[in-house]
Design a protein that fits this description.
Distance between the termini: 37 Å
Shape: globular
Number of strands: 0
Order of helices and strands: HHHHHH
Radius of gyration: 15 Å
């Protein structure tokens, strides 16, 4: 069973949240849903795009900023949440057929190139 569209929408909405307590209450429910969908283990849960969105907003509310060397991971998490709710991350329109797959493939290619440069 895939993660619900509602949960992806809540991840997007979390980025304008101003209530740290509300985010703190949502996080355990999110983790439960991820586990129920086969996302298990500390690393998988810690790095899931939805978890990154929630925790980034929590850090922003607590510290006034969010910058811990995350690179483009926050942006990609946000764009993935948009795609999972049927929105194109690059234009204000519905996601076109095959667009998500093309974007994910381009991210994968970019990551491989970046890893090659780092080696």
């Amino acid at each position: 069973m895939p993660i619900s569209k509602k949960t992806w929408q809540q991840g997007l909405h979390s980025q304008s949240a101003c209530n740290l307590s509300g985010l703190a209450h949502f996080l355990p429910r999110l983790l439960d849903e991820l586990r129920a969908n086969g996302v298990n283990g500390t690393a998988a849960l810690n790095t899931h795009p939805l978890v990154r969105l929630i925790v980034a907003q929590m850090a922003h509310l607590a510290y006034g900023t969010f910058d811990c060397g995350a690179g483009n991971r926050w942006q990609r998490a946000y764009q993935l949440a948009e795609m999972e709710t049927g929105i194109s991350p690059y234009a204000n329109r519905p996601l076109e057929p095959g667009e998500k797959e093309r974007i994910l493939a381009s991210w994968d290619k970019e990551d491989r190139q970046t890893q090659g440069e780092a080696a």
